[in-house]
Specification:
It contains 9 helices and 10 strands. The chain is an alpha/beta fold. The longest helix is centred in the C-terminal third of the chain and has 18 residues.
Length: 275
């Protein structure tokens, strides 16, 4: 899994001993800053049997709130506003609540909207009140984004659909999701980006989402996009590179790449069962 950091024409402050006093990006000290700049992160999940992981499993492609928290701590200060246009099961909003940030999440599937609300109530409200600081908006983000004020967002982080790869009911999906009667795709809706059949059309539509995100993002702020490259019908798609190249058309410039090592995921023989 790869995290792309893109920005509206800006540069990161160097991670040195002067960062703490001149730091306009986050609340980290210089000592805290440096470990976050390494090029490979190891995912820090709660573990599959943790009680707070129960709701997360309802989504076919959840992203750990612990990893979102690292990005939020690095790219924002307390009290700032974070947007996730593909909020899914609400990992970003949970991370915002726990880190003292305001969160706005957009989600197409009403099922996941309800699960996000339940997750915030059960996993966060016991410790922190989230009602006034975390908002979830139901609908197509390509439409809902038009309702958000320009230059009002301090940071955006999201994990968008990886084209229609969730439609493949492979050996892994059968064992880990279908056998347990869990969702194997986001929705059956026509306006779901994960249901677009042509890769080029999918990239164009996804890029349009981030073009709209750039309008609501404050100048000299960042977008972190969590993506994964994939193989489809014998061809390997460098999704992260394809997306980064198209984003430059809208003045969203790639600033860095971080590899996220998910060591908890099951590994199957390469090509199995097709070859």
């Amino acid at each position: 899994m790869i995290t792309l950091a893109v920005s509206r024409k800006t540069n990161l402050v160097n991670g040195n001993e002067t960062v703490a006093s001149n730091n306009k990006l986050n609340d980290l000290t210089a000592r805290e800053w440096l470990p976050e700049t390494i090029s490979v992160w190891t995912q820090r999940g709660l573990g599959k049997n943790h009680p707070d992981a129960k709701i997360e499993k309802e989504h076919p492609a959840p992203f750990s709130f612990t990893d979102v928290s690292r990005l939020i701590r690095f790219f924002t200060k307390k009290g700032q506003t974070v947007l996730d246009p593909f909020v899914g099961i609400g990992s970003t909003l949970k991370a915002c609540a726990l880190e003292g940030r305001k969160g706005i999440g957009i989600e197409l599937n009403p099922k996941y909207v309800k699960l996000t609300q339940k997750r915030l109530e059960e996993e966060v409200n016991q410790r922190i009140s989230t009602q006034s600081t975390q908002r979830i908006l139901q609908g197509d983000c390509r439409i809902v984004l038009d309702e958000i004020e320009s230059s009002s967002i301090d940071f955006m982080v999201t994990s968008p659909p990886y084209w229609c790869i969730l439609h493949k009911i492979d050996h892994k999906a059968k064992q880990e999701r279908k056998a347990k009667n869990l969702d194997t795709q986001y929705t059956n809706l026509k306006n779901d980006l994960g249901n677009i059949q042509e890769y080029d059309v999918f990239l164009t539509e996804l890029t349009e989402v981030f073009r709209k995100c750039s309008r609501v993002l404050k100048p000299q702020k960042y977008i972190a996009i969590v993506v994964g490259d994939f193989r489809e019908k014998g061809r390997y798609h460098m999704f992260h590179a394809d997306l980064a190249n198209k984003l430059e058309e809208f003045n969203l410039i790639l600033k860095g790449i971080t590899i996220l090592y998910q060591r908890h995921k099951r590994v199957f023989p390469y090509g199995y069962p097709a070859a």
